[in-house]
Amino acid sequence: MDKNNNYPLYQTMLDDLIRQIESGELKEDEKLPSEQQLGKDYQVSRITVRRALAELEQRQYIYKKQGQGSFVLKKDKQDLGIRFVDTERAIKNMGMDPKIVLKNFQIIVDGSEKKIRDLMSLTNDDYIYKIEQLYYADASPVYFERTYLKYSRFPGIKLSEITNNELIPFLIKKYQLKQIQFMKRSSATLVTASTRKLFDANVGDPLIKIVDQGVDHQNLVYYSEAATVGALPMFLIDE
């Protein structure tokens, strides 16, 4: 192969890394060789290596940890085909290990949560899931999310299915969501006496609030309110 022909060398590197990932030769969460080592292995420039890694990340084969390198993305995060706020990946991109703790899981049957019922056009007789999760970056709590789901759209969710798992990828896979669109908006505020209990933060520290809505065939079926602190918003908002 002509080493001066950049495209074939780039494509060879890309195809070979994809083959290793898809075959399991490179395992989930396994670190890829350094950019320098990849350049030597495939006899390409650093620019070519970075171009290939960027495409692998875009195609959801790998994720990056700041200051640590590139790692193989878990298969349950690949090819979902729907854009959403991926908090777990954002924490990994910070160079930290994510952990998800389920704080609350209930099915509301008493007609409460009027605001959510109005948003989802539900009656007092309709059931609603209420799910609360706290995300940790290493040992520090950085992201709290309270999610409401329309029970009739997501029947039969089990506690074991969402314990320690990110919610949206699970919903997409189990319920074959093809048309759902997630729309988020964020606003800046400050940590208060009540919110500081969730995080290792002081009153008056910066805090970002995020509202995320999932619309399926013009019906609101997913609604979440989240709060996040520290460096995470810089990685999260641009996901």
TrEMBL record:
SUPFAM superfamilies: Chorismate lyase-like, Winged helix' DNA-binding domain
Gene3D superfamilies noted in UniProt: Chorismate lyase-like (3.40.1410.10), Winged helix-like DNA-binding domain superfamily/Winged helix DNA-binding domain (1.10.10.10)
Pfam families in the cross-refs: GntR (PF00392), UTRA (PF07702)
The HTH gntR-type domain, residue ranges: 7-75
Keywords recorded for this protein, A-Z: DNA-binding, Transcription, Transcription regulation
InterPro entries recorded: Bact_HTH_transcr_reg, Chorismate_lyase_/UTRA_dom_sf, Tscrpt_reg_HTH_GntR, UTRA, WH-like_DNA-bd_sf, WH_DNA-bd_sf
GO biological process terms held by the UniProt record: negative regulation of DNA-templated transcription
Gene Ontology MF terms in the entry: DNA binding; DNA-binding transcription factor activity
UniProt protein name: Transcription regulator
